[in-house]
Specification:
single chain, about 300 residues, alpha/beta, six-stranded mixed beta sheet, six-stranded parallel beta sheet, 9 helices, 12 strands, about 20% strand, binds NADPH dihydro-nicotinamide-adenine-dinucleotide phosphate
């Protein structure tokens, strides 16, 4: 991986057996996706040497250039792309072929070039669920799931939880406007009795006191050192089998997670979600099963663990 992300004016081109993969975003320099994917490709190439010709890069692409990027990169031999902020929703304007998850989540984080067009997938919901299963040893089926936030990541989390049979999904958000937009969308798509929401002005502590919940932080509160927890009620009030998952992984321990730890609850940060969504994307591109082990190892070395 090059130190500085590529731009649309100076990215490499590939011809078979060389294959290009990339993550597109703006900004993009913080992305560790190339570290994860190139580590897993290294492992794959030990068994199948052709994968040593596959390379994953970062491209800084502004929103106005997204369509041009999709056309240009297909021409240049890129067969797989990841999309991150701010492209996950906007890309829908340029796609005619979406998988079921991407279509119900209204967002795409993975593209694969198939013959003459890009096909959109969403692996974020899968990544979250796999992380919750593997790292927190619990699952969405019949669970009460509290999602903090109502942006794109919250929508993916809510959809995945509902598709996987959650008993109840409660969305709590700072602003009523964004909360209502998400609730309306989910109510249109799913059984509305399983989806409810609140803001700080409208929640009732009784819904949470002594009850076991899977609590997921899908807000960006916590990204900055010193940010408070987005939780609106004392953590000690939750049932003892509640678990706490923060989609944020950098910093590795947000106030939300530090409070969960202090009160003895199971908790984990979003690195596992990042890894599992990446492993699923690479599986889509290569048609191979991807072990997340090499990706975890590379991520932990990067963050100095
Ligand atoms: P969006 O910008 O779409 O949504 C942000 C959400 O955070 C909104 O609900 C917003 O509330 C809320 N929020 C922002 N600031 C505050 C604040 N000061 N207090 C309370 N709530 C706040 O972002 P995304 O949904 O794309 O991402 C959300 C988080 O998830 C990010 O931290 C992102 O890094 C992480 N993420 C992690 C992934 C992983 O693989 N681990 C994958 C995808 C995302 P409001 O509606 O009121 O503005």
């Amino acid at each position: 991986m090059r130190d500085i992300p590529f731009s649309l004016n100076e990215h490499p081109s590939f011809s078979l057996p060389e294959v290009g993969l990339a993550v597109l975003g703006h900004p993009i320099s913080h992305s560790i996706s190339p570290i994860l994917h190139n580590a897993a490709l290294g492992v794959l190439s030990q068994e199948e040497p052709t994968f040593s010709n596959w390379m994953y890069e970062r491209l800084d692409v502004q929103p106005k250039d997204l369509k041009k990027a999709l056309d240009q990169l297909a021409q240049a031999g890129f067969i797989g792309l990841n999309l991150t902020i701010p492209h996950k929703v906007e890309v829908l304007d340029f796609l005619v072929d979406l998988d079921h998850e991407a279509s119900v989540m209204g967002a795409v984080n993975t593209l694969i070039w198939r013959e003459d067009h890009w096909v959109g997938h969403n692996t974020d919901g899968y990544g979250l669920e796999k992380a919750i299963n593997e790292v927190l040893q619990c699952n969405f089926q019949n669970a009460k799931v509290l999602i903090l936030g109502a942006g794109g990541a919250a929508r993916a989390a809510a959809t995945q939880a509902i598709l996987s049979g959650a008993f109840l999904v409660h969305i709590h958000n700072r602003s009523a406007n964004n909360l209502n937009n998400l609730l309306n969308l989910l109510h249109r798509e799913f059984d509305s009795q399983r989806v409810e929401g609140s803001t700080s002005q409208s929640f009732s502590n009784d819904d949470f006191l002594g009850e076991d919940w899977i609590v997921i932080n899908a807000t960006s509160l916590g990204l900055k050192q010193g940010d408070p927890s987005p939780l609106f009620t004392p953590i000690a009030g939750f049932g003892r089998n509640s678990v706490f998952y923060d989609m944020i992984y950098n910093p590795p321990k947000t106030t939300f997670l530090a409070e969960a730890e202090a009160d003895g609850f199971k908790h984990a940060n979003g690195l596992s979600m990042l890894v599992y969504q990446a492993a699923k994307a690479l599986a889509i591109w290569t048609g191979r099963e991807i072990s997340a082990k090499a990706m975890f190892h590379a991520a932990n070395s990067h963050f100095g663990d």
